[in-house]
Design a protein that fits this description.
The complex is a heterodimer of chains A (324) and B (199). Chain A is mainly beta and 324 residues long. In chain A, 0% of the residues lie in helices and 53% in strands. By secondary structure, chain B is mainly alpha-helical. Chain B has one domain. Classes of the chains: A mainly beta (324), B mainly alpha (199).
């Protein structure tokens, strides 16, 4: 006997269940296959522009003032700076080879870029656009997180399954923490006390105490009817009050809602196919998620814990960032 | 000597691949972790439906028309929507469930063949790496005064293997997208069914 579960309209459909609220924000999505950035109006989620950029854009991050968007154009081997008002690429920054993910210091002056192919983290001085130094890390560096005070950088290495804690003043590694297999994303909580690290192959999220570097909890996921191999945690977003964490589970097509105090999974939200990276709206009431196989962007009502709308973007959407 | 040592390292780097296979699965050459089988619940959620889609001839006919790889997601979605429009509203939930079960089954059958071909390719690459290492050792072991023809013959065999390895490596990146495209089509068909349920 075959059992199939059907849902009321949820998956992938361009549904609008709530009237669009006025939102003075724009959402930027990198499309890895199209070599473009899709720009959407935060209120209507209508596409307002599609910008051609370098080859294979993946990780994106906005400057603190929202005027610039930094784009890892992996196959072009550099970082591009997009003016978010004129939507022109105004600068090319050195990055080391194959930049995939990066993080920006809280003062906006330093980019830390993971170079997947040469086991280095490049420290890029934004002002000069040059690589100031390189930090040797584990094999296949990937995820990049920075503490709210900018003093600690966390880089994950896919092959060695570690989160490397790096002092940003000395560029020395101060701790190497074993996490699940193929770690992807590292996120500090807003209070800087914890780092959440997703493991794509391990299927878990490690919660690390930022002071002691001890893994204080490992979050596991199980979804009825969904094979364990499909549960591949990647993107993480923790609410500013550190009460709820959202974890994108890749080809499980779900975002897990995790109680950040008890580490219990409260709910799984069905979104598009291969949900990848996450970003909150500026007011924290919405969560945006890129779906790499269904080529759309899902939006989630953070308080109501429901999928509000999914809108098509480019081919293979990867990163997402929100600017005023 | 230094040149082919460098080439050997290059080959090893290719074998390990910066975006190489996930750990623990040497026969899977793609960067994404292998998901051997898709399930309906991975793509849909909600109430349950039961039955064997093959016992419903009209449903089986749509599965047969839509599932083949040559049918695009767009064309398939159109056929699914047209079929749904022919059904009385009360029948739609159960029969769309049957139809989706059929599409998942057929997609899994096609994916399994592609996955096996990718695995065979990975095994071939491993064997090429081993052969290249042996020939590299053979070349290194040649005495300094070995006849030029003998050195050339070994060098040529080695170059042939490296070329074959590199050719296959280039095709793997595209071949790895095939299972993903199948998954994407299944998602598009699920959306079409969903539209048929809500229309």
């Amino acid at each position: 006997m075959q059992i199939v579960r059907l849902a009321p309209a949820v998956f992938g459909a361009a549904l609008l269940l709530a009237a669009p609220a006025a939102r003075a924000e724009r959402v930027f999505v990198s499309n890895e296959k199209d070599n473009t950035i899709t720009v959407l109006d935060g209120g209507t989620l209508a596409i307002t522009a599609t910008v051609k950029v370098g080859d294979r854009p993946r990780g994106i991050v906005a400057s603190p003032d929202g005027r610039s968007l930094y784009i890892c154009t992996s196959d072009s081997d550099h970082v591009e700076m997009l003016d978010t008002k004129t939507l022109a690429v105004t600068r090319i920054l050195a990055s080391g080879p194959d930049p995939e993910l990066m993080t920006l210091s809280p003062d906006g002056q330093t980019l830390y870029v993971a170079n997947e192919n040469d086991n280095m983290v490049s420290v890029v001085d934004v002002k000069s656009g040059r690589v100031a130094t390189e930090i040797p890390v584990g094999v296949e560096p990937e995820g990049m997180g920075i503490s709210p005070d900018g003093k600690v950088l966390v880089n994950t290495s896919e092959t060695t399954s570690m989160a490397h804690f790096i002092d940003t003043a000395t560029h020395q590694s101060v701790a190497n923490v074993l996490v699940g297999s193929r770690p992807r994303v590292a996120r500090f909580t807003a209070d800087g006390r914890q780092v959440w690290v997703s493991a794509e192959v391990g299927g878990t999220v490690s919660v690390i105490d930022a002071a002691s570097h001890a893994v204080i909890h490992t979050v596991s996921f199980a979804i009825p009817g969904v094979p364990a191999e499909s549960i591949q945690p990647v993107g993480i977003a923790v609410t500013p009050d550190a009460t709820t964490a959202f974890v994108a589970l890749g080809p499980a097509n779900r975002i897990a809602v995790v109680d950040a105090k008890t580490f219990e999974v409260r709910k799984y939200l069905l979104v598009g196919q291969r949900v990848w990276n996450l970003a909150f709206s500026l007011d924290g009431k919405r969560l945006y998620a890129t779906n790499g196989v269904s080529n759309d962007l899902s939006t989630i009502d953070v308080d109501g814990l429901r999928v509000v709308k999914s809108v098509p973007v480019g081919q293979l959407p990867w990163g997402v960032a929100v600017v005023p | 000597m230094r040149a082919f040592q460098a080439a050997g390292l290059g080959l090893l780097a290719l074998a390990l691949g910066a975006a190489g296979p996930p750990p623990g699965d040497p026969d899977w050459p793609c960067a994404q972790r292998l998901v051997p089988k898709l399930t309906a619940a991975t793509i849909w959620g909600g109430h349950e439906a039961a039955g064997d889609w093959r016992t419903d001839p009209p449903v089986a006919a749509v599965v047969a028309a839509v599932a083949p790889r040559g049918v695009s997601a767009q064309d398939g979605a159109g056929q699914v929507e047209r079929f749904m429009a022919t059904l009385p509203g009360a029948e739609r939930p159960a029969r769309s469930a049957l139809l989706f079960a059929g599409l998942v089954d057929e997609t899994n059958g096609q994916r399994a063949q592609v996955i096996e071909r990718l695995r065979a390719t990975a095994r071939r690459q491993r064997s090429l790496t081993e052969l290249t290492s042996k020939i590299t050792a053979e070349l290194r072991a040649l005495p300094a005064d070995a006849p030029a023809a003998q050195r050339e013959e070994v060098t040529s065999r080695r170059a042939f293997l490296i070329r074959e390895y590199e050719d296959i490596e280039r095709t793997i990146r595209f071949a790895c997208e095939v299972p993903v495209r199948m998954e994407s089509k299944l998602g598009a068909l699920a959306q079409a069914l969903q539209r048929g349920l809500t229309d």
